[in-house]
Specification:
The complex is a heterodimer of chains A (77) and B (406). Chain A has 77 residues and is mainly alpha-helical. Chain A contains two helices and no strands. The mean pLDDT of chain A is 79. The N terminus of chain B is likely disordered. In chain B, strands 1-3-4-7-8-9-10-11-12-15-16-17-18-19-20-21 form a 16-stranded antiparallel β-barrel. Chain B has a three-stranded mixed beta sheet with strand order 2-6-5, with no helix packed on it. Chain B has a two-stranded antiparallel sheet with strand order 13-14. Classes of the chains: A mainly alpha (77), B mainly beta (406). At the A-B interface, helix 1 and helix 2 of A face helix 1, helix 2, strand 1, strand 3 and strand 7 of B.
Chain lengths: 77, 406
C-alpha cells in the first residue's frame, strides 16, 4: 500500500467534516448539560489507567497513537 | 421580548436550575458542563488530587507445540504509577507523573521452520530490567484558550527517551465544542546490552515528531463525540536490536526501514443511557503507515453505577492488523528487498481483550480494582494471514488504584 498523507484521504476527511458540520446544529442549553458533566462521561476519566493501556498495547502491537501527545518510546520486547 | 416576558423566562430558567445539584450548578455557572475534559477544557483547570496505581502484568508461557528452544516463561512486569495535580491559582496548574517498572522473563528471539509451521526460539537467559519514567506538565488558561506543555524522561538500562509536547485547546462561544491542536517530539537512544558479544548495534538514535488535531462536539444532552487525526514521523534506528531473523539457515539481525510515517483517524463517543444511569463509551482508531501496516481498534466499555458508591465497568477491546511486506516468521531464501523482520508484533493477527473494573467512591477518594485478559491469534485477524506467528502473546493484567482529591 502506498502511503498518502491524511489530507489526501478524501473520504475520511469528508466524513470527518460532514459529521461536525451537522453536529454544529445541535443546541444544548447549559442546564441540560448535567449528565455530560458526570465523571463517567469523561473522554479520559483515569489518566494513569489510560497511560498504562497505551503503554501495554503499543508494546505488543504494530499500531500506536491517536490518544493524545505521544511520550517517549521504550525498549519493550 | 418584553421586560415581563424576560423576567418570566429568567424565573423558568432559575426553576430548572434549582433541580440540579450544587456541583452541577457550579459547572453551569461557568457555562461549561462539557464532559470529562479536565485535561481539555479551555476555561477550567483539572481537579487537584493525587493518584497511585499498581499493575501486575503476566504473559502466558509460550505453548510447547510452538516452541523450538529457549525458556518458555515470558514477561512479568510490576508497575507503580504516581500522579499529582496541583493548581497554583485560577489560571495555572501543574501535573507530575512518575512510573517505576520491574521486568523479568524471556523474550521471543526468532522463528525457525518446523514440521507443522514455524517454531519460536526464545531468549535463553532471563532478562531483568528496571524502567523509570517521569514527566511534568503545566497548564495555563487565557480567555477561551487553554495551553498545555509537558516534558518527560524515561530510562532503562538499554534505552533512554526524552520527550516533550505542547497542545492548545479552544472552546466555542456556546461551550459545545472544543478544538485541540498538539505537537510532540521524542528523542530516544538505544544502547543494547552484550552488544559486542552478540554483534548488536552498540548505540543508535531514533526520533519521532507528531502532530494532532481533534474536535470534541456535544451532540445532545446525553451524547458527546470526538473526532481526531494525527500524523507521526519516526526516523533513525527503528529496528529492535534484540530481534533476529532466520534466512536460509543463517541467523542475522532484523533490519527495518529507517523511516516510518504513521496516520491515525480516531472517533470517541460517550453516551449517557437514561434508564440504568450508565455511560456507554466507544473508541475507534484506524491506523496505517508507509510500511503497509493497517489496523482497526475498537474499545467498548459500560460504566454502571450500583447504588451511591459503587461502579462496575465491563469492557472489551478488539484489535486487528495487517503485516508489512518485509515481515515473515522466517525466510527460506534471501528476501528480495533490503528489509526483513520476524518480530511477531508486526505480523497479521487479531487480539481480543476482556476487562472488568470495580470502583468504590467516597466524597474525596476512590478505590478501584481491575482485571484484564488479552489474547492474540492469527485466527482473529481481519486480513488473511500468510504465516503463523508462533510468538503471539496472551497475558493477564491485574491492577489496584487509589485516588484522593484535595
Amino acid at each position: 500500500m502506498k502511503f498518502s498523507p491524511w489530507w489526501t484521504d478524501w473520504r475520511r476527511l469528508a466524513l470527518f467534516i460532514a459529521l461536525f458540520a451537522l453536529s454544529a446544529c445541535a443546541h444544548v442549553e447549559p442546564w441540560e448539560r448535567g449528565r455530560l458533566a458526570q465523571s463517567r462521561m469523561a473522554l479520559v476519566e483515569d489518566p494513569l489507567l489510560s497511560a498504562m493501556n497505551d503503554h501495554v498495547y503499543t508494546a505488543k502491537e504494530a499500531a500506536s497513537g491517536g490518544t493524545g501527545p505521544a511520550g517517549g518510546g521504550c525498549g519493550c520486547n | 421580548m418584553a421586560p415581563g416576558q424576560r423576567a418570566e423566562a429568567a424565573a423558568a430558567t432559575d426553576s430548572k436550575m434549582e433541580r440540579y445539584s450544587k456541583a452541577i450548578r457550579s459547572l453551569l455557572a461557568t457555562s461549561l458542563g462539557l464532559p470529562g475534559m479536565q485535561d481539555l477544557l479551555a476555561k477550567e483547570l483539572p481537579e487537584e488530587g493525587a493518584d497511585y496505581r499498581y499493575t501486575f502484568y503476566d504473559e502466558d508461557p509460550i505453548p510447547q507445540n510452538r516452541l523450538a528452544f529457549g525458556d518458555p516463561r515470558r514477561y512479568e512486569i510490576e508497575s507503580h504509577q504516581f500522579r499529582v495535580v496541583k493548581n497554583i491559582d485560577d489560571s495555572y496548574g501543574l501535573e507530575l507523573n512518575f512510573q517505576h517498572e520491574t521486568m523479568s522473563g524471556s523474550s521471543p528471539w526468532y522463528a525457525v521452520p518446523g514440521p507443522d509451521g514455524p517454531l519460536q526460539v526464545m531468549s535463553g537467559a532471563t532478562i531483568r530490567e528496571r524502567r523509570n519514567q517521569a514527566d511534568a506538565g503545566v497548564r495555563f488558561l487565557r480567555g477561551d484558550w487553554s495551553h498545555h506543555a509537558a516534558v518527560g524522561y524515561s530510562s532503562e538500562n538499554d534505552y533512554v527517551a526524552r520527550y516533550g509536547s505542547y497542545s492548545v485547546e479552544l472552546e466555542s462561544a456556546d461551550g459545545l465544542r472544543v478544538t485541540s491542536w498538539g505537537v510532540s517530539y521524542s528523542n530516544d537512544e538505544v544502547t543494547p546490552t552484550d552488544a559486542r558479544e552478540f554483534g548488536r548495534v552498540e548505540s543508535a538514535d531514533r526520533d519521532a515528531l507528531s502532530g494532532s488535531l481533534s474536535v470534541t462536539q456535544v451532540l445532545s444532552r446525553n451524547t458527546v463525540l470526538q473526532g481526531g487525526v494525527s500524523l507521526t514521523r519516526q526516523s533513525g534506528f527503528l529496528s529492535d536490536p534484540y530481534k533476529l531473523v532466520w534466512i536460509g539457515g543463517a541467523v542475522i539481525a532484523e533490519n527495518r526501514p529507517d523511516e516510518r510515517r504513521m496516520l491515525t483517524w480516531t472517533a470517541r463517543l460517550r453516551h449517557f443511557v437514561e434508564g440504568p444511569e450508565a455511560a456507554l463509551s466507544m473508541d475507534y482508531r484506524y491506523f496505517r503507515d508507509d510500511w503497509d501496516v493497517a489496523a482497526h481498534t475498537l474499545d467498548i466499555s459500560w460504566k454502571q453505577p450500583i447504588g451511591e458508591t459503587w461502579e462496575v465497568i465491563p469492557s472489551v477491546r478488539y484489535h486487528a492488523q495487517s503485516a508489512p511486506d518485509f515481515y515473515a516468521p522466517y525466510f527460506l531464501s534471501q528476501p528480495g528487498g533490503i528489509h526483513w523482520s520476524s518480530d511477531y508484533r508486526l505480523g497479521t493477527f487479531g487480539a481480543l481483550s476482556y476487562r472488568l473494573h470495580a470502583r468504590l467512591k467516597g466524597e474525596k477518594w476512590s478505590l478501584s480494582m481491575g482485571a484484564e485478559y488479552y489474547d492474540s491469534d492469527e485466527s482473529l485477524a481481519l486480513a488473511t494471514p500468510h504465516f503463523d506467528s508462533p510468538g503471539l502473546v496472551s497475558f493477564w493484567r491485574l491492577s489496584a488504584a487509589l485516588r484522593f482529591l484535595y
